Here is the input.
Amino acid sequence: MPEQTPDEAISSAGAGGVMDLALEEGTTLERPPGGPDGAGPAEKPRSLWSDAWRDLRRNPVFIISALLILFLVVISIWPSLIADQDPLDCNLGKAQEGSQPGHPFGFDGQGCDVYTRTVYGARNSVTVGVCATLGVTLLGGVLGGLAGFFGGWSDSILSRLTDVFFGIPVVLGGLVFLSVVTSSTVWPVIGFIVLLGWPQIARIARGSVITAKQNDYVQAARALGASNTRMLLRHITPNAIAPVIVVATIALGTYISLEATLSFLGVGLKPPAVSWGIDISAASQYIRNAPHMLLWPAGALAVTVLAFIMLGDAVRDALDPKLR
Amino acid sequence: MHADHSGRKEAREEGEKARALLARARAGSAAAGGDPILEVRDLVKHYPLTQGILIKKQIGAVKAVDGVSFDLAAGETLGIVGESGCGKSTVARMLVHLEQPTAGAIKYKGEDITKLSGRALKAVRRNIQMVFQDPYTSLNPRMTVGDIIGEPYEIHPEVAPKGERRRKVQDLLDVVGLNPEYINRYPHQFSGGQRQRIGIARGLALNPEIIVADEPVSALDVSVQAQVVNLLDRLQAEFGLSYVFIAHDLSIVRHISDRVGVMYLGRIVETGSDEQIYEHPTHPYTQALLSAVPVPDPTAREHRERIILHGDVPSPANPPSGCRFRTRCWKAQERCELEVPLLAVPAVFRLTESPAGHDSACHFAEEKQVVPPEGLLDERGEQGESGGCGRGQWAGPVVRDHPGGLRADRPRAR
Here is the structure.
């Protein structure tokens, strides 16, 4: 084969696994694949995060849930924006009355305005959801991540500890733990949720860190002499955090409903605190006579939980590299 | 066992010059004077097999690497070949201190690095770097190319002052044949071959003396493999690097290596210059491996003899006694079961000048030519525009018994 065309060279190389040395290297400043044609080096680089954000912005589920959540956050910070009455200003004479001008949702069993109480109830729900999620994510993420990274006995202890916490039934645990608390603030509820919720995130974080740490780029950093801190912060955390974010977002919705459940059972928030759970509990006795008392807080709760779960779903779609 | 450079061509000589310059420039390596830059002695890695949940009891060990020794001279390329699971990658990972050997020594310029830690280890790491197999997992997808190649400078700030780093990274991109303007891009915007170039640039950043390449091209397309191997070849000449090149592709190893070691089940079974291994193999395993190299020419393919090994590689947790290859070897006799063959020049060849007189761990070593001598079928050998390694390609290896050698036994089964 004295004269070989490039095609032949490639095919014979392919057949034999023998290298074709006619290919001159060094002249291969190929353009990377993907990206708009002819965009050239001036094209703005796209990181995986910015790709995910671009995907999210195009996802109608994300837009709807994000708008709902934005609205919820705004009214939980400034409930007076849309409700100008006092949720604790009640008139027993109007108990269980239906919709009237100025009181669109009617009155509850104590004669309080249902609309105002529903709006004000958002604050406690959102506070519990956000704070509990932050606490759970920090505690669970750090413990799980460290256990996954260092392995060994610390990992064994953490794994068994999470098993123990998974064994505690949430509602029963809540009844036992919270019935001894007399405070009417949200903090005991948040504390309880963090206490029982961290193992879930810890497991996710542990698994995700174990996957990330086996990647060659972590090994490469180790071979370069990188410290554990550097490997954790620069290489592992950015690559392991996506599943944690997804689970935490979905968990936020469930924490809100857990708060309502505990309040419904009388061990979560306690009157005079305003909470959807308390209102649902009080209204459930009168569901035949005055269903509006139940429908509005329950509807608000359902929509809120749904919004967070939808957000979590959209975030997962955007962050999951397998769908990319 | 010194390198046989005779096969290398013009660019090799150029590289020689650059290497000599570099060797002089490098303080401390003056003492080298032919001394190996890396000496590996009886390297052992056993992974314990444990039983029990709380109280772990060791019930055995996977003997991934079990007594590997070799030398690496400055500027030399040592190829290590072997099938999957023979311990090649474990050796590589121990060389760069990603795994702690169970026993044995890795001496870098005479100093055992296996026990080092802290600052001393960090200093050694600067000089021994690794290129990874899979370019899709060896680059952090959340970091830009500039950050990836610049990270070595952040870890070793003494190598480059802050202001210079960006320029150095761009120089490195240029050296490995990538556009320096790609510095702000992310790995997923590159092809496999380009990613491997980025990985090579990262390995070069600290100006190491030794690069351990663990199957650096096996994840790439064949056409891109050639480019990357040629790049490695060019960089070796340019920077005076020493390579430990691990692969399972025999043709690539032959192309790039000065010396070759063949591994089987955690041990080196045969080692010698590339010519000795490829043209005068004396270990039956090497012969079997060579006969398995695909032949592009259909006529030659019909005429060659394939040595087909039977059975699987035994479990490294329970390797055979004596010679580890005996369970699949057509020459195996009782002696192989009782006596571990040492890696040394076989007695038959000890007094001869024959190129078959190289280290081979076989009681019944004999020469058997599996690949035709270089040049015989090598019409493209002199084109050499690609890094000057003009080994060309083999148009068709024909198996036959070496005229001067002992007649090989017929393989038991074919």
Summary: The first helix of chain A runs from residue 6 to 16.
